[in-house]
Amino acid sequence: MFDYRQYKRGYFMPPVECNDWVKKEYIDKAPIWCSVDLRDGNQALVEPMSLEQKLEFFKLLVKVGFKEIEVGFPAASETEYVFLRTLIEKNMIPDDVTIQVLTQAREHIIKKTFEAVKGAPRAIVHVYNSTSLAQREQVFRKSKEDIKKIAVEGAKLLKELAAKEEGNFAFEYSPESFTGTEPEYALEVCNAVIDIWEPTADNKCIINLPATVEMSLPHVFASQVEYMDKNLHNRENVIISLHPHNDRGTGVADAELGLLAGADRIEGTLFGNGERTGNVDVITLAMNMYAQGVNPELDLSNMPELSETFERLTQMKIDDRHPYCGKLVFAAFSGSHQDAISKGMHYRIENDTEHWTVPYLPINPEDVGRTYDSDVIRINSQSGKGGVAYVLEHNYGMIIPKKMREDLGYAVKDVSDVNHKELTPGEVLEIFEKRYKKYTPVFKITEVHFRQIDGIQTTVTIEKDGEKINIESKGNGRLDAVSNALSEYFNHNCDICCYEEHTLNNKGSESSAIAYVGIVSDEGKEYYGAGVDHDIIRASIDALESAMNRSLEKAE
């Protein structure tokens, strides 16, 4: 059955219009980041992490730069209890990192949580209860007053136990299933909790607004957040936190618009791991800021290492198209895209190395530990002449003449198409060399001698069908003289239409030169060759030799 009529909108709009967030253009500073990988992310895994794996993951989160890390639900799991005690007793929590623990708003669970967190240098105790209409009616079967009382009693107990225990505690409250709660009722409950905690500038509390299940377009969530931002008691001493999930595929948008609407903090996970369709992806959020020139205050400069560690510890697979970190997110197979990227890279070098504006690449792949040769220009049957030329230039220092690129591009596409595979830079080089370097199926030039008499006179010795033949001619320059000699002997046009050269490396006397030569045949078709030698004249002659051989071979 696929009947849309069984569904209706389960969210509630604020009682007043809350659209000020739309006047803001972009997020101009990083939020307070709180990783919930070790709790929310871990409980969503098919096989939750072991103690050793959680310890390694904790170190990874610290290395990335998270200053708040939710480490678990210690009252509900022995593994999480032991993990928390290990962090505390082995002094593994850095001085600038605050751990966070989760507890339901139930007396015995709250008490056990405080026992578990004893001795922590700093801890956020996060208490929650569900407030949505569906949960009140179907799960708890309690009135609004009854549900609010659960939150109030939990808040009182947190304050009472924190006063008795040694430690530096901060409090957080979540009206779980906030997105399915009437905003004015969620506000009533949160304000009741705030009034009990009486936060100050030196001891702020956190009100966390979770999109436990995404139920609306992101702009609706932003309006709900703005309503809370404008109406919470003691707002200057309250940190508004968001905890978006991704049921509608818009968790990142919820978080971004929620920040525009007044939120100060984000709870999320690396790569969006979490229940059902996942939590909000902190990496995408942070990199979106980075790509617009805003410091995300997280170090994501080694994305390959981050991805490998995450996949190994969680046994989750990061999608190849995952924003910023997927294996293919910087890859360009399309010819037009490759050409634009190649031209953009050259423009940047020539005009503005301080800023990144390369087409099709929102960020410089090198910023996150990726490389151009294996990550950006990828060659297959969809690739174009610009991409092929870029691969040869970036990997081997060859600057292919514009007139030659089309011929080379088609040759590479044909190989990829026939073999139904992507080609490596090495395979592209192999195609180039087989087609253009020392291509001599008809003849070989074995010797060339020049005399400067009335221009340049030359004697060219060729080997054809096992026989050596000397050919004499003259021209305006050395390459022109050799071209005339070949044209006269074979009675075949050999007019040079393209000639370019450059150094391949910079090792003084050991430098090699590469020359590219294009000729026009009797039929008006262009043929190309390339030559590499320490002597640029010899390299040019080798290039002409290959081009003429190809032209003669096609004429036979």
TrEMBL record:
Its cofactor is Mg(2+). Gene3D superfamilies: 3.30.160.270, Aldolase class I. Residues 439-556 are annotated as: Regulatory domain. Mg(2+) binds at D40, H243, H245, N279. Residues 31-304 form the Pyruvate carboxyltransferase domain. Pathway: Amino-acid biosynthesis; L-leucine biosynthesis; L-leucine from 3-methyl-2-oxobutanoate: step 1/4. PROSITE patterns: AIPM_HOMOCIT_SYNTH_1 (PS00815), AIPM_HOMOCIT_SYNTH_2 (PS00816), PYR_CT (PS50991). Keywords: Acyltransferase, Amino-acid biosynthesis, Branched-chain amino acid biosynthesis, Cytoplasm, Leucine biosynthesis, Magnesium, Metal-binding, Transferase. Homodimer. This is 2-isopropylmalate synthase. It comes from Lachnospira intestinalis. The lineage of its organism: Bacteria, Bacillati, Bacillota, Clostridia, Lachnospirales.
